[in-house]
Amino acid sequence: MTDPQQNTEVTADFWFDPLCPWAWMTSRWMLEVEKVRPVRVRWNVMSLAVLNEDRLDELPEGYRELLTQAWGPVRVVIAAQQLHGAEVAGPLYTALGTRYHNQQQPKDRATLVAALEEVGLPADLADYADKDTYDAELRASHAAGITKVGQDVGTPVIAVPGADGEEVAFFGPVVTPAPKGDQAAALWDGTLLVASVPGFYELKRTRTAEPSFD
């Protein structure tokens, strides 16, 4: 397990789909973790559309409709990474997530353009929402995350190097609201603790609250 008190910076890979509100909550927690632990987040794309493309008939109609909207944002983020560097993913995710979740803006081209312009990226990257130009790269990024935890979970996936050299990877945690300060640090330490135990798979309770974006 990573020692939270060590001074050596740890890279935490975080896989997200911009449309998932629970991944958004976890991502805001990770920004807090960066403030209270020697952790740097590296942002990666995964796709709910890819994850569920072979089981659409099993899903509720409302969720199937959401998945039809899910291709555009991830395609735009992966295109931005391919054309402007991996480091643009985090700021673009924040710009998109703030609009989709905090501000409840529509999942349309105008919202994509506004997010791109906010972070200084060309507006015409929004064209990639309807193109499969970088779908191979999107699927590769998705696979890199989901294969660490298995097909039975979703977004987010987090992976960090363990103290013994073995990677520690897990889905979640699912939280609302996003913990801050000492709470953010405590959740990080505890999550790494349980995730690093060989044979540990699940700790869960029924959600009784919707995502709180305050």
Question: Overview of this structure, please?
Answer:
- 45% of the residues lie in helices and 11% in strands.
- With 214 residues, it is α+β, with helices and mostly antiparallel strands.
- The protein has a single domain (15-194), classed as Glutaredoxin (3-Layer(aba) Sandwich).
- The longest helix is centred in the middle third of the chain and has 24 residues, at 61-84.
- Residues 1-5 have low confidence and may be disordered.
Which labels suit this protein?
single chain, 214 residues, alpha+beta, Glutaredoxin, 4-stranded mixed beta sheet, 11% strand, disordered N terminus, Thioredoxin-like_sf, DSBA oxidoreductase, Rv2466c-like
Instruction: Give helix and strand order, one letter per element, not per position.
Output: EHEHHHHHEEH
Main-sheet strand order equals 2-1-3-4
Strand content: 5-15%
Query: What is the CATH superfamily classification?
Result: Glutaredoxin
Radius of gyration: 17 Å
In short:
The chain is α+β, with helices and mostly antiparallel strands. 45% of the residues lie in helices and 11% in strands.
Topology:
Blueprint: E1 10-16, H1 21-36, E2 39-45, H2 48-52, H3 61-84, H4 89-102, H5 109-118, H6 135-146, E3 157-161, E4 167-171, H7 181-195
Parallel strand pairs: 1-2
Antiparallel strand pairs: 1-3, 3-4
Helix pairs in contact: 1-7, 3-4, 4-5
